[in-house]
Write a structure and sequence with these properties.
30% helix
Length: 108
């Protein structure tokens, strides 16, 4: 069975500003491609939520969609990507959503 995993990478670094496009691209090249060599889809978005005191917070976000086998190795690779992002970018937030997927790939 295949799984669709979406990773939402918040670009705000607590007390350090925002993850730049260059920094994010470097992260994808040096970490994501090694852990998830089968490919991915990546796009810009923004996220918002309300914190505990009612303040509305918005931030630039990178969304990554990965289709992968439902194996421990693939799950571990995704967890490594999340941990590496949080470590590299000072605790920046990451949200993960996964669901079973019926996948067909059409090529000539």
């Amino acid at each position: 069975m295949m799984v669709r995993t979406e990773l939402y990478f918040g670009r705000d670094m607590p007390a350090k500003g925002e993850v730049s496009d260059i920094e994010f691209d470097s992260f994808v090249s040096s970490v994501v491609t090694k852990e998830l060599p089968e490919g991915l889809t990546l796009f810009d978005a923004y996220g918002q939520y309300e914190d505990k005191d009612g303040t509305e917070l918005k931030q630039a976000t990178k969304v990554m969609i990965v289709f992968h086998e439902d194996t421990e190795a693939e799950t571990a690779a995704i967890e490594k990507v999340i941990a590496a992002y949080r470590e590299r970018f000072s605790g920046a937030k990451v949200m993960r959503a996964s669901a079973p997927a019926d996948v067909a790939f059409y090529v000539d």
